[in-house]
Specification:
The chain is α/β, with parallel strands linked by helices. The protein has two domains: 1-82 and 161-242, P-loop containing nucleotide triphosphate hydrolases (Rossmann fold, 3-Layer(aba) Sandwich); 88-156, no CATH class. The protein contains ten helices and ten strands. Helix 7 (171-186) links the parallel strand 7 and strand 8 (190-194). Bound molecules: adenosine-5'-triphosphate and magnesium ion (MG). One of its GO terms (molecular function) is ATP binding.
Amino acid sequence: MSAPVCEARNLRASYIPGMPIVFDISVIVDAGELVTLIGPNGAGKSTFLKALAGLVLVEGGEVRLGGQRISGLPTHEIIAAGVGFVPQTSNVFSSLSIEDNLISGGHTLPRSLLRERVQRAFEHFPALADRRRAAANVLSGGQRQMLAVARALMTDPRVIMLDEPTAGLAPKIVHEVLDDLRRLAKSGVAVLMVEQNAKAALRVSDRAYVLVEGRNHMTGTAADLLDNDAIAEAFLGFRRKS
Ligand SMILES: Nc1ncnc2c1ncn2[C@@H]1O[C@H](COP(=O)(O)OP(=O)(O)OP(=O)(O)O)[C@@H](O)[C@H]1O
Ligand SMILES: [Mg+2]
């Protein structure tokens, strides 16, 4: 059996050495899968993604990408190894043009490949192509997320991680962004996202993990979690039966 695209095993991570926020979280994401992390505010979801990207201190456990250990490497090496990260805020440069945002996402690539990838991004996201020379701050919230994703895809990551990609978007746009991510997973990338719009996210996801207080609380197929009364009540904001 080949190793999964991305596997975090018993990860422990902190901002201050010896004071973990993520105590013990294990998550697997494979090629073609859309996996969602849900859980209450302060559960450590964002910290967990940052730990995978090497942006916070990993104090225990490990992260493997296609079987190779990447935890402990500096962020630029983690990204070069095949991890894309779209943080919740400041994920595009507002004053740069759309094209320059894409170029900045691929600044480590050789020039010819960079041009090819910018072209590819415009083919995947035609709405961006139409306005390539405009500053990113003219984009709507949904288009901005599209640009952030397109930017992270410039390096052809094997796994792309997104922190609340639909935060602050109108409901109709939430579904558009989630559908885009579904399509992205279908193209073969492993997609791992944190979502507050848990119900909408689970509807497009394959599997999900519920994280509470820096630990795994529950995991299953997205359909099973949507169907689970306790989860629905605690995390999805509705009660199925009275
Ligand atoms: N830069 C930081 N330095 C120190 N502590 C931090 C930092 N960022 C977050 N924390 C703490 O880590 C804990 C978990 O935060 P985190 O942002 O990972 O949670 P979350 O599950 O993403 O929550 P939310 O749903 O609100 O986004 C919180 O108690 C928070 O105060
Ligand atoms: Mg968060």
